[in-house]
Write a structure and sequence with these properties.
The chain has 301 residues and is an alpha/beta fold. It has nine helices and twelve strands.
Length: 301
């Protein structure tokens, strides 16, 4: 299996330590040894629950966040509430938020929204732009996977939005093809340029090839998968690796290695746009914010 290397400039900036190599090596061996077996057991226990398609199953949407209450309410939560399929819960997990996130969520007066705020800030990763980008959401994302109750799971970040038929389209695509995990294309914007991100990923960086066959995987805002895959968790040490360091890429690659049946829909079902006052997205936005001292959406996350 091969994954296109990413963020080579970061590797030049921060030299990997022996501890990085030992921890990432042990983690890699552990995942290789256990995750395909875990998948087999989960299929044995829960596979029959998905043999017959359901028109309106219960869906859990989890959102990791940190001190972006206003943006979270205006973008992610509002777009979920506007879905054509309405049988869902929204699980928002704050990484020890200190803003008014809980208050803003309560204003929706919707019992389907649950907010859990971690009692302390997660860490264990470098606090520079790259470290926060690689591993920042891991703690609240893993807690979200512990809390979800739906038969299907979807992920979106606080600054992203969905098309109104997001759940409907991905559910149909997954069920009609027997996929356990599906993803899709997205609308994005960088420095005034709007375009559709296809199967190559955020920056053409996550083309995955398994036994000579390319596997297309979209960004986390487009993920939709069976609930038993919640037992696969994000790797808090992803930033220590020599490549595919971003938590979501690490997660996708591990699912692929384990043998999860994955499908890609080449249709945009989500939007990833710059935050107010910014002009770009992703790691570029984090780096510019760090350089310019822009703290509104970042803080120490």
């Amino acid at each position: 299996m091969w994954v296109q290397p990413m963020n080579e400039s970061w590797e030049k900036k921060r030299k990997r330590t022996y501890l990085d190599k030992i921890i990432s090596g042990l983690n890699g061996f552990r995942y290789w040894l256990t995750e395909s077996k875990k998948l087999g057991l989960l299929r044995l226990l829960h596979g029959k629950e998905f043999e017959k398609p359901e028109k309106n199953p219960f869906v859990s949407v989890y959102i990791p966040t940190y001190n972006r209450g206003k943006l979270l309410a205006e973008r992610a939560v509002s777009s979920i509430l506007g879905q054509t399929c309405q049988n869902f819960e929204i699980v928002v997990v704050g990484d020890h938020c200190t803003d008014n996130t809980e208050e803003l969520l309560s204003k929706f007066k919707d019992k389907r929204i649950r907010f859990y705020n971690l009692p302390k800030k997660t860490g264990g990763y470098p606090l520079d732009a790259e470290g926060r980008w690689f591993a920042g959401p891991v703690g609240p994302a893993n807690m979200g996977l512990k809390l979800v109750k739906g038969k299907w799971i979807a992920r979106v970040d606080d600054d992203e939005t969905w098309t109104p038929d997001h759940i409907e389209v991905l559910l149909k695509f997954a069920q009609e093809n027997g996929y356990e995990f599906v993803s899709a294309a997205s609308y994005v914007e960088r420095d005034g340029k709007k375009y559709v991100v296809g199967p190559e990923g955020e920056d053409g960086r996550c083309s995955v090839v398994v036994k000579g066959k390319p596997i297309a995987i979209g960004g986390p805002r487009t993920w939709f998968y069976r609930n038993y895959l919640r037992h696969f968790r994000f790797n808090k040490h992803c930033w220590r690796k020599s490549w595919d360091k971003v938590n979501d890429i690490d997660f996708e690659v591990r699912l692929c290695k384990a043998g999860v049946r994955m499908g890609y829909l080449n249709k945009p079902v989500a939007y990833y746009l710059p935050r107010p006052g910014e002009t770009t997205i992703g790691l570029d936005a984090y780096k510019r914010a760090e350089k310019e001292g822009f703290k509104e959406y970042y803080g120490n996350c």
